[in-house]
Amino acid sequence: MPKRKNTFSSWRRRLAQRAVHAGWSWVQRTGSVSAEQPGRFRFGALGEATRLAFPLGTVFGEPWIHIGTHCIIAEQVTLTAGLMPDLDLGPDPILRIGNGVVLGRGSHVIADSTVTIGDDCYFGPYVYVTSTNHSYDDPHEPIGKQWPRFEPVEIGPGCWIGTGAVILPGARIGRNVVVAAGAVVRGTVPDHAVVAGAPARVVRRWTPDDGWQPPLRTPAPVPIPEDITPGQLRALSGLDEEQVARLASLGEDGAASLAELEPDGS
Questions:
Q1: Residues 40-47: contacts with CB within 8 Å, 24+ apart?
Q2: Among 70, 134, 140, 192, the one annotated catalytic
Q3: What is the pLDDT of residues 91-150, one digit of tens each?
Q4: 70 catalytic, yes or no?
């Protein structure tokens, strides 16, 4: 068998690979959109420390898109206001995205009528939000040629929208709601609920009187104390689950015991 000959020697291949990666990193940094570097985009509002990663998805109707501060819009995210570009949509914003929102890679937010996303919402990749749905009233006319229906969409603050979820026109999602991956949401979802399925239904909910029903199967995570040091965190990472649970149950005494694990006691 004849030996395969490489076009490049190994060091040339490595050099070319590094150059490609460095070049692409430069393109991503340069092509990203922010308030300081908006490029060709003229959003109605684009908050401080917000960044739209490059490459972007389809973006049009920017004057009617308002994005808050400290948002992360991942690669290939589509943001549109209006049915098509170059329409006059009036004086008010159509798509409102609050502060601290994260939109995962490949997500779509289609705002032909108003769509509102509250503060601190986190979207997984490939989430689809739309305020428009096709009509099929006339059985003799192709569905794509029938005039669509429009209903506003509202997603409350603090929500987590899982990978591949679909939010349909007319959805009203409350505060701190979990939408499971692949769920299809329409209608009203109450605050502090978990919804799953297609169509989505409430599978768990929190109320002040009853707490979580059905009860959570896993214990709530223990928050990291404000005064904990990096050395203590490194020591904590070396413990097993039983030891961590025992320290957490001891409160202040547990923090003192954790400090003793550090070689220098700092």
A1: 43/67, 44/93, 45/93, 47/71, 47/99
A2: 134
A3: 999 999 999 999 999 999 999 999 999 999 999 999 999 999 999 999 999 998 999 999
A4: no
Tell me if 157 sits within 8 A of 175, measured CB to CB. yes
Phi, psi of 147 (to 5 degrees): -65, 130
Question: Using one digit for the tens of pLDDT, what is the confidence trace for 152-183?
Answer: 999 999 999 999 999 999 999 999 999 999 99
Residue 265 backbone zone (phi > 0: left; psi -120 to 50: alpha; other: beta):
left
**What is the token pair recorded at 205?**
């909910």
What pLDDT does residue 230 have? 72
Q: What is the CATH number of domain 28-213?
A: 2.160.10.10
Residue 52 tokens, joined: 């739209």
- List Cα–Cα distances, 236 to 59, 101, 242, in angstroms: 45, 31, 12
Ranges for all domains in the chain classified under CATH 2.160.10.10: 28-213
